[in-house]
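#help-structures
NK: newbie question, is this the right format to request a structure? protein is 5-methyltetrahydropteroyltriglutamate--homocysteine methyltransferase
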Amino acid sequence: MTRNAKTSNLGYPRIGANREWKKALEAYWAGKINEEQLRTEMEQFQLSNLRKQQEAGIDLIPVGDFTYYDHVLDTAVMFGIVPPRYRYEGGPAGLDLYFAMARGNSRAAACEMTKWFNTNYHYIVPEIGDIQPVLTENKPLAAYRFAKSQAGIDGKPVVIGLYTFLKLSKGFALSEIRSVAERFLPVYVQLLQELEREGAAWVQIDEPAVVTGLQEEDIELLGHIYGALHAAVPGLRIMLQTYFESVQPLEALLKLPVQGLGLDFVHDGGANLEAIERLGWPEDKTLGAGVIDGRGIWRCDPEEKLALAERLERLVPEGKLILQPSSSLLHVPVTVQGEERLKPEVRNALAFADEKLAELALLKRALLEGREAAGAQWAGAKAALDAFRKLPERNRSDVAELERGLEELTDRRNTVYAERAKRQQDKWRLPLLPTTTIGSFPQTPEVRQARLKWRKGELSPERYDEFIRQQIAESITLQEKIGLDVLVHGEFERTDMVEFFGEKLDGFLFTRNGWVQSYGSRCVKPPVIYADVAFTEPMTVKESVYAQSLTKLPVKGMLTGPVTILNWSFVRDDLSREQVANQIALALRQEILALESAGVEMIQVDEPAVREGLPLKEQDRRQYLEWAVRAFRISTSLVRDTTQIHTHMCYCEFGDMIDSISDMDADVISIETSRSHGELIASFEQMDYDKGIGLGVYDIHSPRVPSVEEMETGIERALRVLHPEQFWINPDCGLKTRGWSETEASLRNMVAAADNARKKA
Ligand code: GLN
Ligand code: ZN
């Protein structure tokens, strides 16, 4: 038994148990509170987050992870990395400048925002250019002092590592990374020296970028950076923190002159543990052992975690083990308290941020004093998990039966594309360059209000249905008037493309308050897949059939695909993601057959989130794409030759995915192109894409109405590479965030542009 082990946390959710943080920010932006009020509120949130971690008994509490918007933006601003368009003149950036970079202002556009590794968190991309960094304020130091003076906490400052910071930034060529690093080293040194002088025991330096795979030059750069930092602050204990996947090769990090290395033992596929057992653990280093899942929402199996902790403990020297979550808890909701509406077996199986901290404390106790000492809590944890595992809806024999058939299941259309395309053309007789939209039409306040009233019981289901039918009817009339060739019903009955299906399929649940930050003040409440997913009854047939009954033109049925439903939900962790994707795919397969037999024979299955599930390491991507694409085909392959399957993806950087996209075998795909038209077309040219394809001809993210000429030029450009017979004309994405007036005007121009292009083609 150990004499010594500590617990640590890597980061705590900012948003507050009731999204107080979000509300304060938005109140400030709306001018309802002033800067001083905002700062006061923010300090309170920060303090209460610290106290919660203190009360949970965590030994090393992170400080400096709290932010007013985004921690990457904080880092950039702290180093004076402010693009010239904001006319920044040095010194600590004020709040206005800070928020302008995040959200834009009347003079300058916002900085770009992008996904934080493989999570649904988005960060503001630093634009380094040739700015010379200076330490304008030491934010981690301020946070360290705050925690000490306000709560008596000797916190662990958190800093984004230089290597990761540079990998996430733009404004320089990758070949210059070494010299850019050189520019930054002095400010990192200064920052760390100030922390050392203040007496910080540990500093957590986050380097998640290392898990994307290390090449020779990366290893060299890391060696250079950490060599320089060590030389400047030899006495400071640096925990080089990685997360989200395994480190490969781990040897590279074991050699760095840092006192601690933090590794993820949950999402590493076993590779980190295997590497330590093979290589041995260096005598001089502390292991930050990410044993509790920092991203998932499920209670851990205490016995399994204890076994892991004991195994790790044997591998590292006495007193050099720290138990911690696998990543920052930023990616999970705050607390399960308040979820009383869920049935107890499920509720007790959930662990959000606060519950995870409790799990850590319990695990430490069991490791140090034995599981008997952990007593009733230990037994309780095991019993809760047991009850959850036994729930009949997690062990359905009918779903198991379907899954057994998966291997032999046909996931291919009856006929190859070229063949069925002919039959489809005979059936549909579409004009050259057919026009369509992506699915949703404006969700006006009227639509949202009606739904809210219906949910509250203030509007009867019949009246609500009637309201939706009326919306559909109006949109069909309008689409005919505009002259579109393939219509949609408009998705007025859906708030959200995943929630809508989650509510109708078995296996999902919805929390009351399970919010996580997506970007800035925007939070999302992902559905939770807690049990076997299964089809119960048709989900979209009613609206689609009604819409089709109103017109002679084809109306596309509209579904969300299996991979998107998976990637935008919290998923049970006892099955592989592939298994869950297949369960969803089997359920959607039934929906698609139901649509087809009800006479809906053009069906769009949206997959905007396929890219979000891509593993961080190149080498793991093929396998993911294989099962993701198969799940799509399981859903869509059973239809008749003449039934036309469409899909939609809303991003454009997928040069590396084009083969997989073709392999989905959708008859028509529409994709977003507004931001990198040329590049995208070039990648399709290279691979000789032969199926139907619509490259969005205008950007729906702004209310601007594009001119006919502008769209015509875009179409002509695409037609230099793609055949007129395969090209579709549509906007970039769904129109639900737009107003009706610009929607109608833009679509009219789009139809006119298509007419002109047809004449020339
Ligand atoms: N059919 C959906 C819509 O139009 C697609 C949304 C998306 O791609 N995110 O809203
Ligand atoms: Zn889209």
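mod (FA): yep, format's fine, and the tokens are attached above. The pocket of glutamine (ligand 1) is lined by residues 438-440, 491, 497, 558, 606, 608, 648, 650, 733-734, 736 (CB under 6 Å).
NK: thank you!
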